[in-house]
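Section 5.1 Outputs to date
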Amino acid sequence: MGTHRKTWSKSEKLAVISKAKAEGVLEASRHYEVSTTSIYKWLDKVESIGESSLEGLHAPELRRENKKLIAENKQLKEMNADKELKIMLMERLLKKSNYHGREDQVGTRIYRRRTSAGYRIKALDDTKEYLLLQTATRH
């Protein structure tokens, strides 16, 4: 038969650590029935990071944190996809300077119009509209 592992709260860990500092790790281990390895790990955490390192995350907190990270990841992926689309359109426009309202392979319509400031290049797709301003070089 296996034994059930005890979960130690922050206050319990601090009590064990204070007894270990006062009377020694072995005495604290016997008194609180905790392994010396655990006490040494707790001591190292407190000395290197501080008392906040003894706080463990419980299941509901982990689920909330996980949901938050998943939502943030989704948002960042969408932002990345938009930027990649914009870069792809800009590269196509730079390669082919004679686009006058023609449609490319993915169904994106690209327009180029001369203005006093240079060329205004407008690329339309199903969801987004990008305007790129390109300055004209005159001799």
